Amino acid sequence: MVRVSLRTVTMNIPPQDVITKDNVTVKVNAVAYFNVVVPLLSVTAVENHVVATSQIAQTTLRSILGQANLDDLLVDRDSINQRLQTVTDEITSAWGGVPMGSVKQRVRAFLPVWAGSECGFEAWRAGRRCGGVRGR
User: Which residue in 28, 40, 41, 57 has the fewest CB atoms around it within 10 Å?
Assistant: First the structure.
């Protein structure tokens, strides 16, 4: 006999290093909320639904954000969050017991590695040297 909690689980997605479409490295974290609706499926369809949910959330976060430019990440968070939720819904629907429709992945921070540099993002965009690194 396995006990499965039907309460909503709040899961912190640890900071992930993501390389955006325009080759900018950012650190991103998120929070996922989910709950088990069909306990039998959450036990029989996947070995550990909590760990599996965490892994899917991390992988999806890196994958979706890696398809966007830095500008899009900073401006279009709501649509990105919607895509994150949709993709996790599709992936985890086979488990049946973990409805990802109730997952809210919120990107809390976008921090370019060189954010504190004196020449910053605009210099990088323009292709000028910034801290010994040439922009595009």
Answer: 40
Q: Is residue 2 part of a domain?
A: no
pLDDT in tens, 28-81: 888 888 888 778 888 888 899 889 988 998 999 999 999 998 888 888 888 888
Residue 4 lies in a domain: no
Q: What is the pTM of this model?
A: 0.72
> What pLDDT is stored for residue 55 in this prediction?
92
Q: What is the per-residue DSSP string for the chain?
A: ------SPEEEEEEEEEEE-TTS-EEEEEEEEEE--S-HHHHHHSSS-HHHHHHHHHHHHHHHHHHTS-HHHHHH-HHHHHHHHHHHHHHHHGGGSSS-GGG--------EETTTTSSSHHHHHHHT-EETTEE--
Question: What CATH number is given to the structural domain containing 24?
Answer: 3.30.479.30
